[in-house]
Amino acid sequence: MNHNSLSKICSTLIRSLSDQDFKGYDPYDLKAHPFFLGLIKWGKNNKATEIVREIILELTYHYPSKARSFFNISTEHNSKALGLIGTSIEELYLLKGVNNELLKSSQQRIDDLLNTYKSTFLGGIGWGYPFDWESQQLIPAHTPNGIVTTAVGEYYWTKFRIRIDKKSLATCVEICEFLSRLPKDYITDDKLCFSYIPHYQNYVHNLNLFVADFLIKVGIEVNNQEWISLGNKAVNYTLADQHSNGAFDYNGPPEKPQNFIDNYHTGFVLRMLGSCYYYTQRDDIKNALKKGITYYLDNFFLEDGTPKLKPDQTYRVDIHSAAEAVNCLIVLSSYHKKAWPQAEKVLSWTFTNLLDVENGDFYYGLLKSRFTGKVFKSEIKYLRWSQAWMLRALARYQLYKEEKKIIL
Predict the structure, then answer these.
(1) How many Cα atoms are found within 13 Å in the side-chain-facing hemisphere of 42?
(2) What global pTM score does this model have?
(3) pLDDT level of residue 408 (50, 70, 90 thresholds)
(4) Gap between the Cα atoms of 158 and 164, Å rounded
């Protein structure tokens, strides 16, 4: 697909998002409804209730829009989506073919919304999801967390790097004040793991590296040695848990028993390691990165570019996996000769299978029924999960295609 076609898709997608005031559905908004919170807990009681639970959940996958209408789930602003879209817009300014007036008006609205939804927390600022969500406990809507906050932070960091905008850098500093005070477990003197949320300690590698990367690069920019040190210690924790074959689990020790390795979380880990290496030039990061990319390329894609969910499981084929694969592989293409060709194969597969050509936006994915085994297309178009992430991938792809690489 040529540059003009990609620019048209980006323009159409941004126009559509703007027309909806950057609101949309999310895969987790339905699960935040009291009925589904109760259903999920009730389904843990015995095998019979588990089957009933799974049947109901299966119906919501087949009829996602109707299910949200039935339970009166409204579209919402999502701060993570706003951060991803804002970062994409900032990068699209560097390219020809997307209307600058559209970009400008959209960015102004995103800035206003991010200012509305930010929270002062732990001596800094952060953002959270617009719905309640279940973890070790129920997390209330808009509770700031590391994942959403770093996604928003990336927008302000990109704006700073491209425009040398001091106000955006000041916002990044406030974000680091929050991130640096998240709960953290010092595994050893030189290893620590950041928690996802302020309420308790957990161990998630991609989150740990998103926080580490942000603290390192902002810390270098403003000469804050504490943030740099915290970031490097977090990197040490994740590197120490890499499998000998190059893989990374979703969780780290002591939350290790899941042994869950999937496509897009692996992409997140690799991409953040790439950024951390750029800023630190640590040889151990580079070595882990090369091993990780080889594992990623060898295990997560079919020959036609289909992004598998797990090494041993193709379905669900998720737009999130497709978007992150493109984003990750083009950014890290200098580390493996197969990375760029694989990214283009994934992009081609995505356009063929998950692009709504008429409207220029993207479906959720191809799912397999757990009861019939049949594959079906889920045609709901999630704001964060689908549109924001694909816009992010398309903007970055075009930048690298035109050799306008920017700081990670």
Answers:
(1) 14
(2) 0.95
(3) low
(4) 9
